[in-house]
Amino acid sequence: MTTSPHARLIALLAERSAKRGDFVLASGRRSSLYVDCRLTSMHPEGQLLIGRAGLAALRASAWNVDAVGGLTLGADPIAYAIAHASAIEAERLGAAGDSGMVRAFTVRKEAKQHGTGKLIEGAFLPGDRVAIVEDVITTGGSALKAVEAVRTAGGIVTGVLALVDREEGGREALEAAGLEVLSLVRASELLPLLPAA
Q1: Which domain holds residue 135?
Q2: What's the pTM?
Q3: pLDDT score at 37
């Protein structure tokens, strides 16, 4: 039986990134589930699956984005995977120039203290329609910081795309802030695949 790309992404996250136990999260909350998406998003197969799934989710939305990115470091490999997938798609379709390609950028946690002092690095332009990328949504705080940075720099935020939604209120907080949220995987899809702590 052939495994779907979505099922394989869930399996890869469960195998490489997710653990049961007693953890203190970046938000300060305690949780019985820990997900370090970088162990999947920086893996070659993870890059392939995430890029394709992220691009497909964006194409299926009405967001019509020019660029994707979020708060470093968790969002970076996801944004790069989506940008790469869009270049492969454009090449396959024979698109001219940058047509159909999605650019990637990084939002620093604080502006550089040297050079141009930019908070946003990469292929972002003022006026871009942007999807903010998150590795894991817990409270939504990281995504909101990225949203603020992009809006301050002249970008138009169309929504938030998460690799994993922990289903602990972050989606609702982002929606309450007027943001549409898409997630590739939910914690409830990962938990059944994890051994007991």
Answers
A1: 5-193
A2: 0.93
A3: 97
